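It is worth pausing here to work through a concrete case rather than discussing structure prediction in the abstract. The textbook approach is simple: state the sequence, then state the predicted structure, then interpret. We follow exactly that order.
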Amino acid sequence: MPMARRCPFDPPEEYRGLRGADPIHRIRLPSGDYGWLVTRFADVRQVLSDARFSHRNDLIEPPVPPDPITEWVPTPPDRGTFNMMDAPDHTRYRRMLTRYFSSGRTERMADRIAEIANEQVDRLEAAGTEADLVADYAVPLAGRVICEMLGVPESEREQLQRDVDTTFCLTVDVHVAYKAILRIGEAVERIVDDRLAAAVRLGSGDAPDVLTDLAVRGDLDAEELRSITGVLVIGGMDTTANMLGLGALALLRNPEQLRLFRSGSDNGQVDELLRWLTISQWGASRRALEDVVVGAAADGTGGQPVRAGELVVLALNAANRDAAAFDDPDRLDLTRAPSGHVAFGHGAHLCIGHHLARVTLRVGWTVLFSRLPKLRVTVPDSDLRMRDEMTHYGVHELPVAFG
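Step two, the predicted structure:
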């Protein structure tokens, strides 16, 4: 899988050539088996919306070596791990959770997210006139939002954030990664036990957070609650934090686009940043359950036959730079409305937190750039440590000044 980048904001250059000359490209997986790498927007959306391609945990082999813990072994998903299931199990769990992540509900959280963002800026200013925008703003903001929404106690959050980051690193020592995974499991168990106890105390009243409400409703047992908690905490912390940091860097390096954002931010501008930056390093993977032709023309001709059992890797970042879907796709343009981008995936497994992510990003950047009008990066791009070795792309540190 291509990973090297010439520019901190562009996908690996190899994707451009593949998208034009070999958009459904044969690849060799770490196991030695062969699969397909898909780079065109239309083809990616086709696979993501086709139920003949599975997302089950026991069928999806990681496309990038090495696995930090062990060689890949097909393992059925734990009960409640809805993001690694197919229908009908995936559908059942997702229906239970959708109410908490609806557009209306997450928009009503905007004022509270702004309070958290302003508190983080207050801390920046109290500490001086320089900061690391990742560690001092992006990470705590994203972590506080998802943890407060779910009901994760403050005492668990800092270590949990560090351990989540560790598990997403491809180059981490195997023993370090294993210990991080164990600590996450132990933390999740404590969190669920705490919320189950809160549900007992509450009885039938209004629950203050998602996990307590799920416990009060009683549709899930403790094992399912633990799995769901792990999925939501891990997904909500890492992705939004990385996008907050990388998006801030992109706006600071594109002054005209920053001016447009400051003049009136909206979800369309957030979507353009999501499209342009697409932090998923190697996208999504699916396993064909039967023979399927991918990429056929409208009249049914052409396309690439994918055989039952073959793995398909979908390069979301390449698809979001496809000129067949977006005019001048390599240009960041906050005046465009990039409808249908695949930064959150597509189809049945569209990221369940996409509305929450948009609101958090919009509010987080709005507060940051309104409160700190002199904000600037203090090092050249060549001195930045990019997250090339991580599951989700971004910047490790972002040194800034604002005095």
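Step three, interpretation. The chain has one domain: 14-401. Strands lie at 24-28, 34-38, 53-54, 130-132, 284-288, 292-294, 304-306, 311-314, 376-377, 399-401.
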